[in-house]
Every structure is written in structure tokens, then in C-alpha cells.
Amino acid sequence: MNNQEKLFQAFASALNIELNQVSPELTYNTIAEWDSTAHMILIAEIEGVFDVMLDTDDIIDMSSVAKAQEILTRYEVQF
After folding, report:
1. CA of 64: how far to CAs of 5, 79, in Å?
2. CATH number, domain 3-73
3. Calpha distance 57→17 (Å, rounded)
4. Which of 19, 32, 47, 54 has the most other CB atoms within 10 Å of its CB?
């Protein structure tokens, strides 16, 4: 499984949605499942999957799947 697949799976798992609902265009608060509580679950999932500790600013800025990828590249995760 490559890192993009891992990221998509993390989103699907944390938000309790189908994997086919996850795309780079998926954005915070555009689906009912991605609210503020689910966002924190998502952050914990991503930190666990990629073994990183995200800064507060990055947690706040993570507003889409594409943005999550962008942020993770700063933590030396290759996509």
C-alpha cells in the first residue's frame, strides 16, 4: 500500500465513510461525517499511520485531503 492509499484509508476509517468517498477534493465540513470531532479523530489516525506529530497550525490548516497530503510532505512523507 502506498502513502496515498494509506492516507485515503485513514480518512475513510476516521470519518467512518466508504473508501470511494475519499478523493483529493474532499473538504472539511462538506460531508456531515467530517465535523470538528471527527477532525480530531482524523488527526490522531493520520499521526498514527504516518508516525508524525502534527503542529497545531497544521492541524487547523488541514481542510482537505489534498491539503493533508501537502502538509504531510513537510514531514518527509513521500506521495
Report:
1. 15, 16
2. 1.10.1200.10
3. 26
4. 54
Nearest 5°: the CA angle 3, 28, 26 is 50
Cell of 77: 512523507
Domain chopping of the chain, boundaries: 3-73
Amino acid at residue number 40: M
Q: What gap in Å lies between CA 13 and CA 7, rounded to an integer?
A: 10
Amino acid type, 35: D
Residue 54, CA atoms < 13 Å, CB-side half-sphere: 25
Instruction: For residue range 16-66, list pLDDT tens digits in order.
Output: 999 999 999 999 989 999 999 999 999 999 999 999 999 999 999 999 999
